[in-house]
Write a structure and sequence with these properties.
The complex is a heterodimer of chains A (90) and B (491).
Chain A: H1 6-37, E1 46-47, E2 50-51, H2 52-76, H3 84-88
Antiparallel strand pairs in A: 1-2
Chain B: H1 3-28, H2 33-39, H3 46-57, H4 60-73, H5 75-81, H6 85-106, H7 111-119, H8 122-155, H9 159-207, H10 211-221, H11 237-248, H12 255-258, H13 267-298, H14 308-316, H15 319-357, H16 363-386, H17 390-416, H18 422-446, H19 456-472, H20 482-490
The chains are: A mainly alpha (90), B mainly alpha (491).
Subcellular location (chain B): Membrane
Keywords (chain B): Cell membrane, Membrane, Transmembrane, Transmembrane helix, Transport
GO molecular function, one term (chain B): sodium ion transmembrane transporter activity
């Protein structure tokens, strides 16, 4: 029996990271949208003209995800070969 | 007819044709026709990969229907649309490297190839091919109708002529160019969508007198427009959140998206695509839907949601700029249609014909079949879209949710769960599709069950079915290296 392909361990870890990011994304999005957005409209404040709940949930949330994805990809994702021949010659 | 709007769009079409022609010349010198025609020879770089995913996914609904609904519903709908940011990274991270490695190991060119090799079951292949052909065919026809309507409203041509124009343009470059043409034109189309969105947003904000001004107008009209709950206050948190499944994470199960995750050149392209894809998806979704809301005080009283974007572009921009900007929804529709067309024809030629009808077909026959089937499919869609039958519209309603419920677990658990087997896959697909259709009717009659979108429960049920049947019938751990041993023995 062969050892588990080392590339699979990399792939599995990265899939879990994807799941984690999605979960974090959801919580951020949900908490700001419904946490701030449930107040009466008169109490809303406006940032760059946009309602605060929307600004934090969707605008800031989007850029937070862009930064997180970039950081995760640059520092935690591993470059692996996809073809078998390259793996054999390792 | 408004020529200054039309000319930029025609220039755009000419560029698209040129790319199709260029790809066809590259295809002529190809040594591996199937992989090249249906997968672009697995050599997509990061930028093209990201753009082709965004362009394929961003369909008529992101550019016409979605902003139109935002116009009616207000900020609640923009919030809902932002659930799509997750698709920008999630699909590539989940399918990611394992899918790319396994696809190469199996020598898979379509999603069905992958399922066939993983589950080793005729029933899985035929069930998948059937779902793809039926659902995607309907989804495709709906997009053609959208494309024709857009041309119709811009040019004043009759619906039939508009549809004809649209059909010819799509068919020519898909038929001759294959996947590479589709992916490359997607890249151009993605760029057009990005620029078009930005220009239109700025124009709308300026003609609305600034964001604060627009916001005040919206509050004066109906304060609910700026809450997360929609104009009528009927968007519940549970309903909006359930869109995370339909348009966010569930997209992993869409065959036209999954096939792109086997087309990248190497890990570095995939990494770049992750970052670019997240930025582009989020940017387009956020801004297109904001445009929809902002358009409300500028052009009140638009009845048909699909017309909001064309009308607001013509209102706020000089005609020739409007032409460039409106090439964006056009691009979105075309790039969705071309991928679907290619996917349906690959299901017919590769998954059914080559697997079961004539496995030893010569290269020449395969080539002729691929061009022929793609062309014939196009003609059939054209004829159906001329006067859409009720059945088509009905099937289209199921297309995305149904495909997600059917495929998400056989793909994802097939990759990551060694206990998954063909019984689980068949049970999961059947449960997904049937419960989706059943629930659809239930929800029409009684309102949404548990207040969530129809796709939510079938996804959960098909997961349970997958796990239960895999463990109960012929439970056996799958060896992901099995194919490798077989190849070594042969060598």
């Amino acid at each position: 029996m062969k050892e588990t392909d080392w590339r699979f361990r990399v792939a599995h870890r990265e899939a879990w990271i994807g799941l984690g990011l999605a979960l974090f994304n959801f919580i951020w999005w949900f908490a700001f949208a419904y946490g701030l957005g449930s107040r009466p409209v008169e109490e809303y404040t406006y940032i760059f003209g946009l309602p605060d709940w929307f600004f934090y949930s969707c605008v800031v949330g989007f850029w937070v995800m862009v930064v997180l994805v970039t950081v995760v990809v640059k520092f935690f994702f591993v470059d692996v070969p996809f073809d078998e021949e390259q793996e054999e010659s390792r | 007819m408004n020529y200054s709007v039309l000319i930029p769009m025609i220039v755009f079409l000419i560029i698209i044709f040129f790319i199709g022609y260029w790809s066809s010349r590259k295809l002529a010198g190809s040594s591996n026709f199937i992989s090249d025609y249906f997968l672009g020879g697995r050599e997509l770089g990061g930028f093209v990969l990201a753009m082709t995913m965004v362009a394929t996914y961003g369909s008529a609904s992101s550019f016409l229907g979605g902003p139109g609904t935002a116009y009616t519903m207000g900020f609640g709908w923009v919030l809902l649309a932002m659930t799509q940011v997750v698709t920008g990274y999630f699909v590539l991270m989940i399918l990611g490297k394992k899918y790319a490695i396994m696809a190469r190991r199996y020598n898979a060119v379509t999603m069905i190839d992958f399922l066939k090799a993983r589950y080793n079951s005729t029933a899985v292949v035929l069930l998948s091919a059937l779902s793809i052909i039926i659902f995607l065919f309907s989804a495709m026809a709906a997009q053609w109708i959208g494309g024709a309507r857009l041309i119709e409203s811009l040019t004043g041509l009759s619906y039939q002529s508009a549809l004809f124009l649209f059909a010819i343009s799509v068919l020519v470059y898909v038929t001759i160019g294959g996947f590479r043409a589709v992916a490359l034109t997607d890249a151009v189309q993605g760029a057009v969508m990005l620029i078009g969105t930005l220009i239109l947003l700025v124009a709308v904000i300026i003609s609305g007198g600034g964001i604060s001004n627009i916001m005040q107008d919206l509050i004066n009209e109906n304060p609910n427009l700026v809450t997360p709950y929609g104009a009528e206050g009927n968007l519940s948190a549970a309903y909006v959140s359930s869109f995370w499944i339909l348009v966010g994470v569930g997209v992993v199960g869409l065959p036209q998206i999954a096939v792109r995750a086997m087309s990248y050149k190497n890990a570095r392209s995939m990494h770049r695509a992750l970052i670019i894809g997240t930025i582009v998806t989020g940017f387009i979704m956020l801004n297109m839907h904001l445009i929809g809301v902002f358009a409300r005080p500028i052009l009140p009283g638009i009845e048909v949601g699909d017309k909001v974007i064309p009308l607001i572009a013509l209102e706020t921009l000089p005609p020739w700029v409007a032409g460039i900007v409106l090439a964006a929804p056009m691009a979105a529709i075309m790039s969705t249609v071309d991928s679907l067309l290619l996917l349906v024809s690959s299901s017919i030629v590769k998954d059914v014909y080559l697997n079961y009808v004539k496995p030893d077909a010569s290269l020449k026959t395969i080539k002729r079949m691929s061009f022929g089937v793609t062309g014939i499919l196009g003609v059939i869609v054209f004829l159906l879209a001329l006067d859409p039958p009720d059945l088509l519209i009905f099937l289209n309603l199921f297309a995305f949710g149904g495909l997600e419920a059917a495929f998400i677990w056989p793909i994802v658990l097939g990759l990551y769960w060694k206990w998954g087997n063909k019984y689980g896959a068949i049970a999961s697909m059947a449960t997904g599709i049937l419960s989706y259709i059943a629930l659809h009717f239930y929800n029409i009659e009684n309102g949404n069950l548990f207040g969530v979108h129809t796709v939510t429960l079938p996804v959960v049920l098909s997961l349970l079915a997958f796990i239960a049947f895999s463990l109960l019938i012929k439970r056996q751990a799958y060896d992901y290296n099995a194919i490798l041993y077989r190849n070594e023995k042969q060598a």
